[in-house]
Amino acid sequence: MNDEIGFWAFHLPNTLLAALIYTLIGRYILSLFFPPDSDKVVWKVFRQITDPVLAATRSVTPAIVPVPLLNLFAVVWLFLLRVALFYVIRMLGVLPTPGA
User: pLDDT band for position 100 (50/70/90)?
Assistant: First the structure.
């Protein structure tokens, strides 16, 4: 039972954070090709998914960071959150073990 809790407690948030990181990287790459007010569907979807993350990032990132770099800062913050998740789950002793 402990391994099941560790599996879901670690892998579900870890996978969601990884998906957000890759989506933010995708948005950054798309921002090189699309203007901010583009009406293309792929751009709108990426913006809808990542705008809440960027709003949260703006609240914890210094105001001196320009808006185009905010996306990259969000990737860094989410990566650090993934590392913190690993250490918290590990300290709680519910980190899934390989082959279990």
Answer: low
Residue at 99 is within a domain: no
Q: What angle do CA 9, 87, 89 make, to 5 degrees?
A: 25
Q: What is the dihedral of CA 77, 71, 59, 52, to 10 degrees?
A: -100
Could you read off the pLDDT of 30-74 as tens digits, one per residue?
A: 999 999 889 999 999 999 999 999 999 999 888 898 888 899 999
Assigned token pair, 50 = 């990542």
Task: Give me the number of domains the chain comprises.
Answer: 1
Q: Which residues 6+ apart lie within 8 Å of 28 measured at CB?
A: 71, 72, 75
User: Cβ(53)–Cβ(78) under 8 Å?
Assistant: yes
CB count, 10 Å around CB of 27? Answer: 22
Containing domain of residue 57, as a range?
2-92
1, amino acid identity: M
pTM (predicted TM-score): 0.84
